[in-house]
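Hey, I was hoping to borrow your eyes for a little while. For a while now I've been wondering how a particular protein folds. The fold is given in discrete form, as structure tokens running alongside the sequence. Could you read through the record and tell me how the tokens relate to the sequence? Take your time with it, there's no hurry, and the full record follows here:
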Amino acid sequence: MRISKSTPWSWVPSLYFAEGLPYVAVMTISLILYKQLGLSNTEITFYTSWLYLPWVIKPLWSPFVDIVKTKRWWILTMQLLIGAAFGGIAFTIPTSFWLQGTLFFFWVMAFASATHDIAADGFYMLGLDEHNQANFVGIRSTFYRLATIFGQGILVMIAGNLQVFWRNSISLSWSLMFYGVAGLFIALWLWHGYVLPRGEERVKSEELRVKSEERKEERDLKALVKSFFTKFPAREVTIGILFMLLYRMPEGLLAKVSALFLVDALHNGGLGLSPQEYGFVQGTMGVIGLTLGGILGGICAGRHGLKKWLWPMVCAITLPDLVYVYMSFAVPDNFLVVNICVFFEQFGYGFGFTAYMLYLIYFSRGEYKTSHYALCTAFMALSMMIPGLFAGALQEAVGYQAFFIIVVAFCAVTFIVTSLINIDPKFGLKEVEETEE
């Protein structure tokens, strides 16, 4: 099929690939980079957890993106900035100030990526009619996942293969890899500069301006935040926020340390996987498990409602954490066993995460559901940021084995906050919600 400039096929897949790649670079690739460059787990988790901050405070500047310039302008500007940030990371890795330099450019990339998310999602709504919006929901989600596979799978494997070629020159190998991604992003910027439609956004923008008076209060950030905290009785709002912050507590502790455990040396208690092996395990098997779990979760919630599947999803997102307890004690040298364990844990996470995302939608219902949902996702990012700040320090204090046992113990927090929420039994029936992490 020949894709013309005017069809959504020419820009929706590449746009959401461009949305996913910098996120996975900031959140996952940075972990492996810093581990190979010699930082401690405490330093790695502390520094990289702060990179969640742009997504935490994203709702604060999303109205600015709506008002100033066009979504198309923001997309192209942020893609150019992200490409420059990739190049900046590549340039600073071999230098004596590699830590300060790479962290600076990861921060630039994080803020640019969060802004790109706002613009891309808004452009998707403006550039497509309702029929095409529904038709391309699965496509945008698929290419976001492909970006995840490409980022934490293929790119990490490329860095590992370059280390073999350049005789273990870690800094040079990572630098070359990041230069390559910078070139890829410049190519995406050029492509989108050509294919992103212009007329559709102008027409839709006119429609939005006609309705501007109706949405005046929604654009008032103070009024918006007040409406978020007063839309339900105080007890229900408090429970809802606690659920958003604590449901993923075990995952917030596990996410970064589990990646470090897989690549850490055997004498440190890790599994000692090479970058190539890690890229395959997490970037391929892990992402496939996560995606399949999410698809199954959406199907189950759509057929029987969220309330019926809530507790199975809670068990799915918590109990598979036991595989890391097993791996830390057994230290399997069979690569297939490691793949099965990671697949199982990620499948459970994908299935259980469905309950969390549907609850955010449930809590966001009402007059300002889009803006309230954005605030909910800020709490979601915060729920991963806070545990991650001290996860590495905790792991280094007690070791991998005790740390993973503590993670399993914290699963009780997920069960407690879930028991407090109240959900309409009909919510989720025959609804399919596709949302990126």
